[in-house]
Every structure is written in structure tokens, then in C-alpha cells.
Specification:
Elements: H1 8-17, H2 23-26, H3 48-60, E1 65-66, H4 79-84, H5 91-105, E2 109-110, H6 117-131, E3 139-143, H7 148-158, E4 164-168, E5 191-196, H8 206-215, E6 219-224, E7 245-249, E8 265-269, E9 280-286, E10 292-299, H9 319-356, E11 361-363, E12 372-377, H10 382-391, E13 394-395, E14 398-399, E15 410-414, H11 421-438
Parallel strand pairs: 1-13, 3-4, 3-5, 5-6, 6-7
Antiparallel strand pairs: 2-8, 7-8, 9-10, 11-12, 12-15, 14-15
């Protein structure tokens, strides 16, 4: 949908420059009898998201309602973003992006981005082993509640460097780490990974986990959903000292859903660790004449130094999607990001209550959640439920049975700000019907 750039202020300024008071006066040469008058059959004005939804429905017919999250999220992307992306800059754009991500995460420095969120976590693990000079260990505590794809990618990348990822379990009732169950003497460990929210959408006790890790000489790697940071405490403020390294997937920041990407990973850290951070960093400076300029200040990767000395051999600055993310954050601002996060949270909580009220369906965990939640089925297989929902035009969620068999027949459900009340009701009605059908009844 093309972006129409003229605001009311723009129109007023253009009219003033040609000496016309208003639009009606501009067209006063058209005789009154030729004017149509009121447009009675034109509907009331819609906002951009509503209009896009209407036109897509008219162009392609009814589309499936998507409630799948699990690391890739359907958010509204203002049309202006990808119209402006084609006029991207380079160094200044990256500098602005880094500044925004540092503010969002509460950290002191950000790199220019990484390949994606999964490889970003792997890079954070490698960085933590280098940066923790007090530890001689290559042990990393990795919660089972971290995105399974991220854990798999991290394992593939770090295992041949002698790094061990040791699993930290979550409790089946709360869906998060029980801090009291952590060992009093964990030994020499380089870092603890803390997801917030975790893969189930559950909020971890980040303050207690951060302080526990630091008390035992570990660095803290936070892996976060950037949208959640508009509402939740940023990692830089976790516990007494804050997280040491922050990483995650930037796709929610203005990047559309696509089969496999392109997405981008983000990484931030404290200044004392900045020379261990992979990728590139753009800085702002002044030239000999005192004019402001931008330059690559740190670029410790294999293109610039000896491969054996590089902080990374796989990092990639995703310039195009980072440009989109920077424009997205600029256009929405702090208030807009907060509205996106708040509306997503409200929709998720509302849908969870509606679905949990259906016979044979229950919320899996007792902990507070953001953005996503897990439901379990009694007397029906998750795969069968999802297939039946798809047949009714609802993409119901992500099947957890392969990655988390201990949860039983369970799925992960997501509802962002793109969903309206009618969508939530449609999902509830479809699932209620499916549960009756799968139990041999008539819906």
C-alpha cells in the first residue's frame, strides 16, 4: 500500500504558499451544480492498519488468521517504512540504529547488527567466554526455556570450540526457572543465559537470576524480544549490576514475515566488554574543521584483521533490514512502541482467558506472560487440533510436542496488535468447535 506523505500541516503550508485559505477555495472555479456534495456511500475513514486489512481481504479473499509466534511475529508495519528504506544512508543510519538499541536495552553500546537472533546468541556465548577474564571455564548455563532453534544454532556454532552448553530446567507449573533450585556452588561457569520473555512467553525472575549469576562470577547474557522492552525493565537494569551482554531477533521492529528471512540479530553490551563484541561499530566524531561525521570505530572481524584474532568469522551487518528497523523505531517513537507492546499484551491475555474457558483446554503455566502463552489439550493431539483449525481458516499456533514432550499435547499461541476482538472470538469459536469434533461430538 503506497504511503501518502502529506499531513494536514503540509497541506496548510502548501495552501499558504500559494495564497489560498483552504481546499474548497482552491477549487472554487468548479460550478456548484457540478459538485457531487456529500459522499454518502463512502465509509468512515479507516486507519492504515484497518485499510490494509480491508484491501487485502478484497483483493485475495478471506485470509487465515495467524496466531503463530515462536520467534517470528506478525506486527503492523507502517507503509512509510519500506517506502523510505530505498533511500537508505550508511554510517549515520547505523549510528542512529545503535543509539536506539542501546537506549531500548539499557546498555552502553550496540553493534551494527548480526545475521539473525539465533546466530546472535551463539556470538554472545563466544563473546562471554572471551570477556569473562575471571573464569577459565567454557561452561555456559543455557535454560531449556530458550527458543529451541536458538539453542540448536548455538550448539552447532560453539561445540567445536570446546564450549559446553549445560541445560537449566524450568518448572512444569510455572514455566520458568526456579531460582531457589539453582546450585549453591555451581563451580566455574563463564555465563548464564536469561531469556525474557522465555520461549513460552513467560516472564523469568530476571533480577534474582542476574544477581545469582554475578554472585558466582558469571557474566549474564540476556536474550530478549525488543517489543517487550517498551514495557519491561531493560536488561541493563536487571538486578544490582544489569546484564553484561544483550542479544535477540530484530524482526519485530518493522520487518515483515517471510519464509526464512531476511531478519537481523542485535547485540548490545557494556563498554568494558565492547572490544570483545563481534561485528562493526559506527561512532560519531568531528573532522579537522570541526564538522560532525561518522566513521567505523571498531570492526574486529576477519575482513579487517587476522582471522585467528577476529571476534567473529560469521557476523553479517544486515544493512537493509536494520534500515527498516531504524525507521520503524523513529516513526513509532517511545509512545508508539509502548502502544504496540501494550495492545499485544492485552490481546494475548484476553485470548488466553477465552481459550482456557473451553472444555478440554487449559493454560499450561501459572506465571505472568507477555506476547505469547501455552495451552494444553485434554483428550486431543496438538497436531490434530492445529490441522483442524487450519481447515477452519485459523493458524492456531506452534506445536510444542516435539521440542517439549514433557508438556504433553501443548501449543504456543501468539496474538499481536494486529488482532482485533473479532479475530480473538473467531479463534475461540473455531477451537471450541474443533475440540467437540475431535472428541467425537457434533460442533
Amino acid at each position: 500500500m503506497p504511503f501518502i506523505p502529506h499531513t494536514e500541516t503540509d497541506v496548510d503550508q502548501m495552501l499558504a504558499s500559494i495564497g489560498v485559505s483552504d481546499i474548497e477555495t482552491l477549487f472554487d472555479e468548479i460550478p456548484a451544480e457540478l459538485r457531487i456534495g456529500e459522499l454518502d456511500k463512502v465509509p468512515v475513514a479507516l486507519n492504515e492498519m484497518e485499510m490494509s486489512r480491508l484491501m487485502h481481504a478484497r483483493a485475495a479473499g478471506p485470509q487465515p488468521l495467524c496466531f503463530i509466534g515462536a520467534g517470528a511475529y506478525e506486527h503492523h508495519i507502517p507503509a512509510a517504512i519500506w517506502e523510505i528504506v530505498t533511500s537508505q544512508g550508511t554510517l549515520q543510519l547505523i549510528y542512529e540504529y545503535q543509539s536506539m538499541m542501546a537506549h531500548l536495552t539499557g546498555m552502553e553500546a550496540s553493534n551494527a547488527s548480526l545475521y539473525d537472533g539465533a546466530s546472535g546468541l551463539a556470538e554472545a556465548v563466544l563473546m562471554a567466554v572471551r570477556a569473562n577474564r575471571k573464569s577459565k571455564s567454557k561452561r555456559i548455563l543455557m535454560p531449556a526455556s530458550v527458543n529451541p532453534t536458538y539453542r540448536s544454532v548455538a550448539q552447532t556454532i560453539v561445540e567445536n570450540q570446546g564450549i559446553t552448553l549445560e541445560m537449566v530446567d524450568f518448572t512444569l507449573d510455572a514455566g520458568r526457572i526456579d531460582v531457589a533450585s539453582l546450585p549453591a556452588e555451581p563451580g566455574d561457569v563463564a555465563a548464564l543465559v536469561i531469556p525474557q520473555p522465555n520461549f513460552f512467553g513467560v516472564l523469568e525472575d530476571v533480577n534474582a537470576l542476574t544477581d545469582w549469576a554475578h554472585a558466582h562470577g558469571m557474566l549474564v547474557i540476556a536474550t530478549v524480544n525488543p517489543t517487550s522492552l517498551a514495557l519491561l525493565t531493560p536488561p541493563g537494569e536487571w538486578g544490582e549490576q544489569g546484564a553484561d551482554i544483550v542479544c535477540g531477533e530484530g524482526q519485530p521492529l518493522g520487518v515483515p514475515l517471510a519464509g526464512g528471512g531476511p531478519y537481523f540479530g542485535f547485540m548490545c553490551c557494556n563498554l568494558k566488554h565492547v572490544r570483545q563484541m563481534p561485528g562493526r561499530i559506527v561512532g560519531r566524531t568531528v573532522d579537522a574543521d570541526g564538522k560532525e561525521g561518522f566513521a567505523l570505530t571498531l570492526q574486529a572481524r576477519e575482513q579487517h584483521i587476522r582471522r585467528s584474532k577476529a571476534t567473529s568469522n560469521i557476523c553479517t551487518n544486515q544493512g537493509l533490514v536494520v534500515t527498516a528497523a531504524t525507521i520503524y523505531m523513529t516513526l513509532l517513537g517511545a509512545q508508539g512502541l509502548n502502544r504496540v507492546a501494550s495492545t499485544s499484551h492485552h490481546n494475548t491475555q484476553t485470548l488466553c482467558k477465552q481459550l482456557s474457558a473451553i472444555e478440554g483446554v487449559a493454560s499450561a503455566f501459572t506465571s505472568p506472560t507477555f506476547h505469547e502463552f501455552v495451552i494444553k489439550f485434554d483428550g486431543a493431539a496438538a497436531a490434530d487440533v492445529l490441522d483442524a483449525l487450519t481447515a477452519k481458516g485459523v493458524l492456531g499456533g506452534f506445536n510444542l510436542t516435539d521440542d517439549y514432550p514433557m508438556l504433553g499435547e501443548a501449543i504456543l499461541v501468539c496474538a499481536t496488535e494486529t488482532k482485533i476482538a473479532e479475530d480473538l472470538t473467531a479463534y475461540r469459536d473455531a477451537l471450541a468447535s474443533v475440540m467437540v469434533e475431535l472428541k467425537g461430538g457434533v460442533a
